[in-house]
Design a protein that fits this description.
3 domains, 6-stranded mixed beta sheet, mainly beta, single chain
Length: about 300
């Protein structure tokens, strides 16, 4: 796998690569304190979403929106056949106006006035239910009705969500409960987004799941690029600190399935197979293969092979 020059064998029995010494820059490996990160997988969801239903039973006369349309609070989503409702409203209105005039003349009683006023208000409310409107500013994500369908109470017609305010919902093991609080800032990585965004815990479900022994957190996102609900995300929570050895990612090399680094010892480059762990920015954790105090080669003015003479 690696180029090793064959030539004069020193008394130690090793092989010495031919060629001049390569000038290198080194870094003494020292244990560093780093945050202990737990990565919780979750789903991006809107902070505000709603299922819009009809409040009365009537035939749908018109549908004004389609999935993907942006709407504002109060915009008309659909209208229902209101002919029967309007007839009832007109009758209730006429009766109320008549009894209102009679009550002012002292001919009708207060009870009669109140009864007709109630019927008038109920008829007015029922007529308003024939117009289905958006409850908030958002996007129509689902339409479950068409013109001619019979709308009934409890039957979903539209699904809306606020695409401007999103959050990630993820389950966190109960052992990390003391480290997560309302207002805790976390980092979220979204694979489809190909980047990371800041987030802040805005809600914590107060009870843990007895099966998974975890509790759910909901963190408000502050993305710099557009993302959509339903995407997969990873919430990175800082749950403590630990000690480890770290190397610049540029100093860690790979060939096939092997991962290795070079250290400088006794004026020569020594190749070390290493096992790597988590990455922190431009640093990679070295789990095995090196010891504290060794000189890691981070830059070389030429090609390095195992046993290559080097100067600092």
């Amino acid at each position: 796998m690696f180029a090793v020059s064959c030539g004069h064998k020193p008394e130690s029995g090793g092989t010495t690569p031919a060629g001049p010494a390569v000038k290198v820059q080194t870094l003494v490996l020292q244990p560093q304190r780093v945050p202990e990160i737990y990565e919780a997988v979750g789903t991006i969801r809107p902070k505000l979403e709603a299922t819009v239903e009809a409040k009365i039973t009537a035939v749908i006369r018109a549908v004004k929106v389609n999935p993907g349309d942006k709407v504002r609070a109060g915009d008309v989503l659909a209208t229902l056949d209101d002919r029967d409702l309007r007839a009832e409203f007109e009758k209730a209105k006429a009766d109320f106006e008549r009894y209102d005039a009679l009550f002012k003349k002292g001919v009708a009683s207060r009870a009669e006035y109140d009864a007709h006023e109630t019927k008038y208000r109920l008829a007015s409310a029922s007529l308003s239910y024939a117009t289905i409107t958006a409850p908030f500013d958002g996007v129509v994500v689902k339409k479950s009705c068409d013109v001619g369908d019979l709308a009934r109470p409890g039957q979903p017609l539209f699904a809306l969500e606020d695409s401007q305010r999103l959050r990630i919902e993820a389950d966190v093991p109960e052992r990390f409960a003391p480290q997560v609080n309302i207002g805790t800032k976390i980092e979220v990585r979204v694979d489809a987004y190909q980047g990371k965004c800041d987030a802040q815990v805005g809600e914590i479900v107060p009870s843990a799941d007895p099966t998974s022994r975890s509790f759910r957190i909901k963190a408000d996102l502050h993305p710099k690029k557009p993302i959509k609900s339903g995407m997969f995300g990873r919430a990175r929570l800082t749950v403590g600190e630990r000690t480890g050895l770290f190397a610049p990612s540029s100093a860690v090399r790979e060939r096939g399935q092997l991962t290795f680094i070079f250290v400088a010892a006794d004026g020569r480059a020594q190749m070390r197979l290493v096992k790597t762990g988590k990455a922190f920015d431009d640093q990679v954790e070295l789990l095995s293969g090196v010891e504290p105090g060794e000189k890691l080669i981070v830059n070389a003015q030429g090609e390095l092979v195992d046993g290559q003479p080097v100067t600092e």
